[in-house]
Amino acid sequence: MAIHIALLRGINVGGKNKIKMADLREALGTIGLTRVQTYIQSGNILFESEEREPALRERIEGLIERQFGLSIKVVMRTAEEMAAIAAGCPFSDEQIAAAEASSEGECLYVSMLLEAPPTERVEKLQGYAAADERFVVSGRDIYLLFGQSIRNSKLAVQVDKLNVPSTVRNWNTVNKLLAMAQEMSLSRT
């Protein structure tokens, strides 16, 4: 069975779209997902299933709508895809260190999209990149490096306007999800 990571967009942010992770884990078990785990309250779910992404995504989104009354987009990656994301960071250690030195918190993020963004939209996005805000598109993932803060970033706002459903995770979360997936893989009996 494959290990999947489901990333829910906009869960438990600013008091909106509230879902208790314990309730979500239990509900996901009722639709046949096994070894369900969650990480923090922002909708990061690991589980095992033999199904493929489109069917899984549809079933999870349907469950969330029926069970919790929320229309939430789910972006998914396999454990292998998450490992490739972590290994493929296009920014150098020096670039990251410089961003960390000037940033007001986290500086490195990955926006994970349902599909690769249209070329013309990515070209438009280039106009919002700056010396202290950089991005690199890799398939259906966009690496983002902020020298100040994602909260006030014009680039981050434009990434959200690519017309492709997406969700953003900071680098620490990416690495934690990868570590959890690797632990799940090692603990198989």
UniProtKB/TrEMBL annotation:
Gene3D superfamilies: SP0830-like domains. It comes from the Bacteria. It comes from Paenibacillus montanisoli. Pfam families: DUF1697. This is Cytoplasmic protein. InterPro entries: DUF1697.
